[in-house]
Amino acid sequence: MGVARARPVGLHFAPMNREALLTSMYQSMLASLGESRWWPAESPFEMAVGAILTQNTNWKNVERAIDNLKTARALTPEAMATLPSDELAALIQPSGYFRVKAQRLKGLVTFLDQECDGDISLLAERDLDELRPMLLTIKGIGPETADSILLYALGQPSFVVDAYTRRILSRHGLLPEDTHYDEVRDFFMDALDPDPAMFNEYHALLVRVAKDFCLKKAPQCEACPLREYLD
DNA sequence: TGCCAGGCCGGGT
DNA sequence: ACCCGGCATGGC
């Protein structure tokens, strides 16, 4: 399958299975970068809102939008359900795509109202394999947003894949650049224990590595925690 | 000054 | 199945 198309990793790591390799990469990143304080939010609902607002958008802009929502006391399912769409859009304006994102937030709170009486934390009781398809039926919630909500808001062991993850894996010859979302997700989830805290930290570390080492004008590969894992 | 950022949808081929 | 335009702001 897609995973089988992965080129073998460099000779140095040829004897390692995927679990050993991914675990080793994780330990290397953690050892040199330390734990991340990733995606701080005051509530699971705020996390879910942030997951939608950050779609293709700089987190800095999202923080402004979240601040606006807090100031307007609109960062609750009830308030957000009541607020007219254009007023909601005005509050989240700094996050970009504000009209579509206002609709997406409306879709989220409608879903929460139907499924758990507006209490998103109740969803954590349900099974991941049941929950994920449900979230994906919400218009504006695709695979990455769904996994972000599952992992960060609900503490479910759903590995989050983003552009950085895909870039790093392909750069290191582990998967082709154009690998589909679910295949990349399976690449991690088939190999690693379903540990939400570890999935959380793993994703955070990959993003930090991408930003701090790979995406520099002059990429700092010599200092990169993953330098040993290059082909 | 353009190009990009922790995507997703809808329509066309 | 793949490709593309649209959605929009603030930072560098």
Task: Give a description of the structure.
The longest helix is centred in the middle third of the chain and has 19 residues. The protein contains eleven helices and no strands. Helix 9 packs across helix 11. The protein is an all-alpha fold and 231 residues long. The N terminus is likely disordered. The protein has two domains: 106 residues, Endonuclease Iii, domain 2, CATH 1.10.1670.10; 110 residues, Hypothetical protein, domain 2 (Endonuclease III, domain 1, Orthogonal Bundle). It binds a DNA duplex (13 and 12 nucleotides) through helix 3, helix 6, helix 8, helix 9 and helix 11.
Shape: globular
Mean pLDDT: 92
- Taking the alpha carbons of the first and last residues, their distance comes to 22 Å
Q: What is the helix/strand order?
A: HHHHHHHHHHH
Structural class of the secondary structure composition?
Answer: mainly alpha
- Rg over C-alpha atoms, rounded to the nearest angstrom: 19 Å
Uncertain spans: 1-12
How is the biggest beta sheet arranged? Answer: none
Strand content: under 5%
CATH homologous superfamily assignment of the largest domain = Hypothetical protein, domain 2
Helix content: 55-70%
| CATH architectural group of the largest domain | Orthogonal Bundle
CATH topology name of the largest domain = Endonuclease III, domain 1
